[in-house]
Amino acid sequence: SDNEFLYFKYLEFFGKNNLKVYDRWGAVVYEKDNYNNDWNATKVTDGTYYYVLTLGDGKTLPGYVQIIHK
What is the pTM for the complete model shown? Predict the structure, then answer.
């Protein structure tokens, strides 16, 4: 199977946000204000990416996503 999207459940209930996705070298490969579960990762290579979702209240939700293309 493939995994080319980064999805946060209930994201629509958090209001304003900012998403940054980093590659393993720390370079930003994607950034968007008011992220709406719409990053299509087809333009990045397979691998593990680190992300930080910052909510409107300043709370940060960091994590990792594994991108796998068929």
Answer: 0.87
